[in-house]
Write a structure and sequence with these properties.
The protein is mainly α. It has one domain: ABC transporter involved in vitamin B12 uptake, BtuC. The chain has 11 helices and 2 strands, in the order ααααβααααβααα. The chain has a two-stranded antiparallel ribbon with strand order 1-2.
């Protein structure tokens, strides 16, 4: 029990870092209604760019900005694949993700590049978990506030309209292809920031660090929606719910590891969590529909 309590701050720090990715996934999955798998590659790209910038003497905040730009570029490529070349959403993300593996290898020069807090001034570090929680928490709040303002503008509303109903958006004179690209650019830019912070936190960037990121992102969004959907109706609060979902996810992982689950089974466990929370609304709806049907027959 003591070991679990000691692990909670680290789980919260990881949840806040991945919560930024979850916000990015929320934009594509919930706002834009676009199944984007680019994030598995753009997370690693953000981490690789940030680490190499820091190693070459850049300020860590400049490195995070560079990671944001790199993630935006990855999202832009995915958007072009879909809107210009007509490639389906899922396949366009897979193609970009696949190409980013080679790009990330080029950026790092090898499969893994370490960056030590003893040698470089990092924004967050595993060695200073409390400070990492504060820094990433402030970062999440700032991002949510900026996005809340942006999606209240005419441009942001156009992206939301595109996700709600493309035909109606086009009838209103909105270029839906442009809005899709903008949504993907913004989403993967946030994923790049998450990758930059995660690489600094764990002290290294790896070409495989983004493997399974989409599963964690979806899990965070779905957990947040199921747990807080009924009380968080505001758009900003829904994004905050995705961050809380990421924290809950990593706390659950910590609990399961303390119970003796092998780390080799984490991917399977993550997939099961996503499947469970995706199925809950459907199962709940089916249960109440059957209960209502039985009640109606008894009344008759």
């Amino acid at each position: 029990m003591e070991a679990l309590i000691n692990a909670l701050p680290g789980s919260a720090a990881q949840g806040l870092i991945w919560g930024i990715l979850a916000i990015g996934v929320y934009i594509t999955f919930k706002v834009l209604d676009y199944a984007d798998l680019t994030v598995d590659g753009s997370l690693a790209t953000g981490g690789a760019v940030a680490v190499m910038c820091i190693i070459n003497g850049a300020n860590p905040y400049v490195a995070i900005a560079a990671a944001f730009a790199a993630g935006m570029l990855a999202g832009f490529v995915t958007g072009l694949f879909h809107t210009v070349f007509g490639i389906p959403p899922i396949l366009s993300g897979i193609l970009t993700q696949l190409g980013l593996y080679s790009v990330n290898m080029r950026i790092l020069g090898k499969a893994n590049q370490a960056v030590s807090v003893d040698q470089y001034a990092l924004t967050v570090s595993l060695r200073y978990i409390k400070e990492a929680c504060i820094t990433t928490g402030i970062c999440c709040i700032i991002i949510i506030l900026i996005l809340y303002w942006f999606f209240g503008t005419e441009l942001g509303a156009s992206i939301r309209a595109t996700g709600c109903n493309q035909n109606m958006a086009r009838a209103q004179g909105i270029n839906t292809n442009v809005q899709k690209v903008l949504g993907l650019v913004l989403s993967n830019g946030l994923v790049g920031i998450s990758g930059a912070l995660y690489a600094q936190y764990q002290g290294s960037a790896d070409v495989n660090m983004g493997r399974g990121a989409i599963v964690i992102g979806l899990a965070s969004v779905i957990i947040g929606e199921v747990a807080f959907g009924k009380i968080f109706h505001n758009f900003a609060l829904r994004m905050f719910a995705a961050v809380l979902g990421a924290i809950i996810y990593f706390i659950v992982i910590a609990v399961v590891l303390q119970l003796g689950l092998s780390t080799n089974d984490l991917k399977l466990f993550s997939a099961l969590i996503v499947a469970l929370f995706l199925a809950l609304p459907h199962l709940k709806g089916s249960y109440f529909a059957k209960a209502g049907s039985r009640g109606g027959k008894k009344d008759a």
